[in-house]
Amino acid sequence: MNSIAINRGALNEIFSRFDRLTDRHGLEKIKTIGDAYMVVGGIPHPRPDHAEAIADMALEMQQELEIFNRQHHANLKVRIGINTGSVIAGVIGKKKFIYDLWGDAVNTASRMESHGIADSIQVTEETYQHLKDRFLLEDRGIIQVKGKGEMKTYLLLSRK
Q1: What domains lie within the chain, and their CATH numbers?
Q2: Which has the closest alpha carbon to 130: 57, 53, 60?
């Protein structure tokens, strides 16, 4: 980071930009935790292009952060992880209701982010299969993923 610290105002501006992308792509924002932003496609309404919509949003998130960095003379970087699979969704508990997701697909997406490379979008093999015909992806190879072992991953670069 250069001249701007990640503070509440900066995070609010960045996440507000991401909220607009979520709406534009017809996706569902689940939550933010610290500096993490969780969004899902195909929930609560199934859609056959869920992986493509998420991929498009991820690419646009990178662009939005580049614009933010230019406007604020900053050098913030983002890691994005994407996975495709079944999830369980709903509201848990009786106080402070929040719509949430859980399951292996959610955990794997989180691991794609945490084991990713700054300024990159890392995707799983399953997501690669959904995207390979319409997007340019680079084979990252096999990486060791906490709780998952060795996984073949790819970096999403652009639309074809």
Answers
A1: 8-159 (3.30.70.1230)
A2: 53
